[in-house]
Amino acid sequence: MAGEIMNIDNWAIPLTNLDGHQLLGVELVSHVERDGIRQIGVLEEEVLREQIRLIESKAGWFRDNGLYCVITTGRGEPYEYSPFLRQMTKEGKVHNQQWLDDLGVHGGSAIPLVTGDFEVARLNRRYTEENINRLIFPVLIKSIRQYCDLVIVPVRDKTYYPMLREVGVWAVQAEYKPIRFEHCEKLIGIQ
Hints:
Radius of gyration: 17 Å
Strand content: 25-35%
Low-confidence stretches: none
Largest sheet: 8 strands, mixed, barrel
Helix content: 25-40%
Mean pLDDT: 86
Oligomer: single chain
Structural class: alpha/beta
């Protein structure tokens, strides 16, 4: 529409090992406002183009530091020109650069995990918050690792880290606050 002003804020959410001393990657999350109103679930192609442009401008940094860049937009397109780029999906695997997202979401299915041969699986944040203190949680992680060796758990409370380490969790997300993606190089300094 004519006269609309669109603003895309891009945030870098760190993905670290359990010690918090090693940055493993960054998730690029974009928030879109149109005429001052936050948009949810729209403008995916425009957002994806902006994300790819930003990622390409930081490609050397990701490659030089051996880091992943993870996005949640797109429709399963492989990004062969960026070997460090990964795409979260909640459905079946389309290409080798996809990671399984939102495992444990209410109403979700474990079928993509069991049949997808994913490199990485990330638990749903709410599911983690509701279940991490239950005795069955470590058993669940071990079961997930039978199908996918690398598991990301979105948790801030470090008191759970010994248990997560013991069951072989690869990474945590939420230990550090997001920063603007344009300044993601500063994340190396927080380690």
